[in-house]
């Protein structure tokens, strides 16, 4: 099985390196990029193949991952449509907001397409990745994609009607978590603790809290109740967060990302 990647940015780099770490052979991976420089460097790092053109990459690949920015798809795919038609590979798109219908309009009729949304934590093998497929993708092809993205974290099969929701809670929320941790560490800095130490403690606490949710099966609020002693310190912090609009701010941020994702998915969205 040969794997091609059009684009060689940070996310493709994380995926390729995850695959290599999991035992995929570099000689089975083909890379192309607009300038060729980034593809060549990543290929050298992973002992993979750098292609001078996307046409050559498609001809060599059984699976082609579209790893370019969402607005670039409409620029490059029309010129590659015949190349895809001749090879009919499994196509995987990691472009945010671009629906299966939109991708089908840009690609040959009947080509199998999987839409995928990883997040930046793929760089350390900790992404939560969502996938959905068009009607012609076989179970075996779907499993191939799951296997690829399992090398960079967990994989969740999502109904496409909920894919924009996933893009918020599985993608953009990574930045929300970073922002929360930085704010807490800066507050500790203000109170006299070195920022580096405060950030390490905060990150470990967030990591442990996430593990508690995943491993205990408990819902967040019962766990909050367990932490909050009557008349204690934690309940003061929780009620202050609520009074200052913490939950409302999270919901507003969720809605803003969801709205922008829907806009990006429209063919008329400006480049």
What do these coordinates show?
The protein is α/β, with parallel strands linked by helices and 271 residues long. It is built from eleven helices and eight strands. It has an eight-stranded mixed beta sheet, with helices on both faces. Strand 5 (90-93), helix 5 (100-106) and strand 6 (113-117) form a beta-alpha-beta unit. Helix 3 crosses helix 4, helix 7 packs across helix 8 (195-216) and helix 7 crosses helix 11 (246-264).
Mean pLDDT: 95
Strand order of the largest sheet: 3-2-1-4-5-6-7-8
Query: pLDDT under 50 segments (min length 5)?
Result: none
Report the sheet-strand fraction.
5-15%
Largest sheet: 8 strands, mixed
Task: Find the count of extended strands (DSSP E, 2+ residues).
Answer: 8
Structural class: alpha/beta
Broad shape? elongated
Distance between the termini: 35 Å
Number of helices: 11
What can be said about this structure in brief?
57% of the residues lie in helices and 13% in strands. The chain is of the alpha/beta class.
